[in-house]
# Entry
Amino acid sequence: MSSTHKTGMGWLALLTSCFLFLLQNLAYASDTGSAPSLQDYARHAQFINIKISPQGDYLAASTRGDDGNVRLVVLNMETREVMSSIAGHREDSIGSFDWANNERLVISLVREVGAFEAPIMTGEIFAINADGSRRQALTGPNSPDQNYVMAEVFDWLPDDPNGIMIYEFSLRRAEPFLQVSRVLLNSGRKIPAGRIPLRYSREGGVQIISDDQGVPRVVVGVDPDDNSKRLTMVRASEDDEWERLRSQDDLDFGFVPLAFSNDPNKVVGLSRTQTNTTAISLMDLQTGEEEILASHPDTDLMPLMGLKDGKPHDVIGAAYELDALETVFFSGSGDEAFVQTAMGLQNAFPNQTLLVTSATSDNQTLVIRVGSANQNDTFYLYNREENHLAHLSAAAPWLSDALIPQTRSIVYEARDGLEIHALLTVPPGIDEENLPLIMLPHGGPHGVRDSLTTFDRDAKVFASNGYAVLQPNFRGSGGFGDSFEQAGYRNWGTSMIDDMTDGVQHLVDEGIVDQQRVCAYGGSYGGYAALQSAIREPDLYKCTVGFVGVFDLDLMLEEGDIPERESGLRYLAQVLPPEGEERDAQSPIRNLDKLKAPVFLIHGAEDFRVPQIQADNLKAALEARDHPVEWMVKRTEGHGFLNPDNNVERWERMLEFFDRYIGEDAD
# Structure
């Protein structure tokens, strides 16, 4: 690990200047109203997260350097001086970070892989002062115990400025139990605090919920007696034995605890035990009984958290999305003043998501992050006492004043009457009439949805270049409850695909889209859906692009990281069509005789979720038929592309491909 104190490299001087300007509320952006370039869209966010110290003396911001790795920059709020620049070592990036006290930060390291994959935690956690001094490894080979472990902070102990609570497990043991410790930040010494009676396994991790004293009281993980079950265990205090509270199938949503309520014997969580959609529920730890606090009949709820001592505490409301982004706040919260603050901030940013990234220990100064499908994330500093909101920075400042295509929600009816919600992005400044269309299904496919909360750069790139983009939340998508999601099970290549086609036809009927100029593109399951759509509707789609896509459903059971786990095999057995004739009918590679559209295949050679053999086999089968196929593989990419230059090249080639078949000069 390295740090830079107060001075540094040229890029740091530029970043410092930019950060100081931002704190003075000066904009840093491209020319107002100009269209972003592909390079602008491909650039990684400059600021990923910003957090304020407990006494409000410093801001820490995670930012990506010229080498692509994420580092942490710390700014003195009074002097506006950059105190330090903290980086990981070699290929490691800063992952999560937080203020343990007003002078000391705790940082976890990660390694980044494909764009559709979560960063891989290295297990190494460090503590470091705001000025970059007194680095102390808390876990990993450089820590006092020199153990190779996976570790994570689960409680920041606001009342203990020199301690945090972590769990860790050995990387040398198969399915180890989790050890809990209080770690002293100055020395790295660990004070054992017991063992969690659940194992960390390849079938799933362990969730720990601690009370106000940092004592683990609720744990959820794989049942040690049956790895097809998820077990919830509880205890009344640190001195009591753990007891089994409930067990449920691992593929069921059930109850997911979030935090203790104001009652020390009850936890708030997300639940589908009594509702079709995800509700916010209160569970009694003594009886296991639940009380539904809020639910919506048609869409899932997500919690809005309150604050205590500058940290998230209790649930004060819910956010949800159907045709727009909405929030609701609960009455009877422990801090009505903060509820009023949250309501006022949400009203100031309609149709955007709002997250408090951090707060001072008196809850008076907040850093908030605001964003949506039409606004790249922007950070603000809010002073509650003065009711003053100051602009800090956009995550990608060069996009702030640029001409960005707008995304909106639409609703249409599938052929069997099911209501489908979708996103539509259109080119700016032109009439919405007879536009060429890219049908862009999301990956997953289950548990995932396209949302107004997400700034989708693929959709923006294509719309910026003259194409309308449809992102349908076909049956099987997440966010709309169990029955909607389960309606897609075993129908990956049939009714789910029909929902996509029905969305295209809806836009044609509305006069927005030219039926003779439609292509399909998607990543992961979306890559499968793009090809399967062109197979089921050979006269509708003029071209199709599969990015890190699945094309052979049988091969999903043999290759990739999903079938390496028993839970992965259970998932595939639940969602894939039955083997044999039905699965063959839904596997694109076995139905190429129906395909007319030219194909463009894009893959990452280091993709462990959907290995390149899926694309290799399809390419060979297409070439054997003399079917038009184009090819792009990047050696160092995984399940999605991270390198900006590779994404620029991908978009350039895709746009040339689309232009050839559905552009203005297409035949």
Notes: The mean pLDDT is 87. The first helix runs from residue 10 to 23. The CA atoms of residues 519 and 658 lie 7 Å apart.
